[in-house]
Amino acid sequence: MIKHIIKFEWIALLRDQWILILVILFFSITLFAVRNGHEKVADRVSAIAHEREEVATQDAQTIAEIDSVERQLKALPSESWLDPRSLENIAWQSPRVVAMDPVPLALVSTGQSDVFTHYVKPKIYGEAYTLGFSELSNPVQLLFGSFDLAFVCIYLLPLLVLAFCYNLLSSEKESGALRLIYAQPISLYPWLLNRLLFRFFVLSAIAIISITVSLLIYQVDIASNLGSFLKLLSLLLLYLLFWFMVAFVVNLRGKSSGHNAVTLVALWLTVVLLIPSVISQLATNLYPVPSRIGMIHEYRVATTEARERADEILENYYRDHPELAPKDTTQENRYTWMLTYFTSSDVVNESIRPILNEYDAALARQQAWVDQLRFLSPATLLQHGLNDIAGTSTAHYVDFRKQVIAFATEWKDYFKERMFANELMKAEEVASLPQHQYSAGDITTSYEGDLGGLLVFLLVASASSWLLYRQANLAKVLITN
């Protein structure tokens, strides 16, 4: 009997041209979404490469200038801070690029990549990287989001499921064919479930082929990233099957096609739009972050006060660190201004550290709240999982920010120690300046949790369909109504 159900279902889909419509429609929007994601990633890669080329060019120029001075081919400038060997010049003009290179599947989901920057060039002074870590973004784009593959899977794919299955039972009832079907030796529940599962396999095949072909067109190496690709497909298929089971439950209620369509759209709005919005709003209201303007104001006030006490702070610093005090008191340290700034900035950082810590803690509480409540909606679970796979989740950018701050401290300490010793840079030392290598190894992924959450939603929908069928005696209701 199942073989006959599948056969006639296939004939019906071909007759109504559903297969052709789904193939053309879903492949078109998938290809367009992957193209958008590819362009964003390409821009990101190009920007990082451009900054690295600038650093390489600047290093070559610095080496040439230092070599000219050392060989006495070029006269020393009258001002010491114009000396190409000056550590201050090199630390300011040749900062290293701290970049977050995209993962191969970064084009799948934009995630937080349109909010946070992907590279920073920490310099010898300035603490902007601790106060801000976002880039100027188009507010309209942030409001509507990006048309990427994640958007297609989370928002549009369920609508295709609803359009594909909203009248699976009601159309048979309204045409009078349901009485003839029920007269056959088959139960209503398995008959309807088999039809729905067949449509699920058809749409799943179309989705998998469309996504695979689109990624291959834009030169994504699926073979080398098979693990991440299989994670993407497993999350997507569970999410897709969940919506088929929702359509199954709504069909089993025995209402008209119009009623089913309205009910399914209402459920889509609740699951995909309403619940995620409520989670975000609750996180903002329950765990508000301190005023960013107030934090910047406190930083500027502390900086002004430290500058007024700069000489006193430097003297105290020498008293606490006698090993850094100048050995030759007859020779003036060429970096006195920068050393004064270093010691003052330490005082400033200590004074505003509680404010920065509170700001970071509030953001962490917000994110923890959102992570916990993502299990209220399969849409948030899928979005979270796709962001992890694409390397564009909040956790990735929080970790990147920590790496930026750590490298900025390393960069400053490298020059700070040598400035206290009143040293000059040699040409051969430029190549050995501190470098940063991005690593995402410390980020804990939550694929198992997201997959388990989607599985729970699927089981709840499946159990609801069986209970509804058993308790309501729907077979009689569907025939007589």
Summary of the model, kept short:
This protein is mostly helical and 481 residues long.
Rg over C-alpha atoms, rounded to the nearest angstrom = 31 Å
Mean pLDDT: 81
Q: In terms of per-residue confidence, which ranges show pLDDT below 50 for 5 or more consecutive residues?
A: 135-144
Distance from N terminus to C terminus (CA atoms, Å) equals: 26 Å
**What percentage of amino acids are in beta strands?**
under 5%
Please state how the strands of the largest beta sheet are arranged side by side: 1-2
User: By helix and strand content, what is the structural category?
Assistant: mainly alpha
Secondary structure tally: strands: 2
Helix content: over 70%
Helix count from the secondary structure assignment: 18
Q: Name the shape in a single word.
A: elongated
What characterizes the major β-sheet? 2 strands, antiparallel
Order of helices and strands: HHHEEHHHHHHHHHHHHHHH
Molecular structure report:
By secondary structure, the protein is mostly helical. It contains 18 helices and 2 strands. It has a two-stranded antiparallel ribbon with strand order 1-2. Mean pLDDT is about 80; it is low at about 135-145.
Record the SSE blueprint:
Elements: H1 2-15, H2 18-70, H3 87-93, E1 98-99, E2 119-120, H4 128-131, H5 139-144, H6 149-165, H7 170-175, H8 177-182, H9 188-217, H10 226-252, H11 257-286, H12 292-308, H13 310-320, H14 336-373, H15 378-390, H16 394-420, H17 447-472, H18 474-480
Pick out its properties.
two-stranded antiparallel sheet; 481 residues; 2 strands; mainly alpha
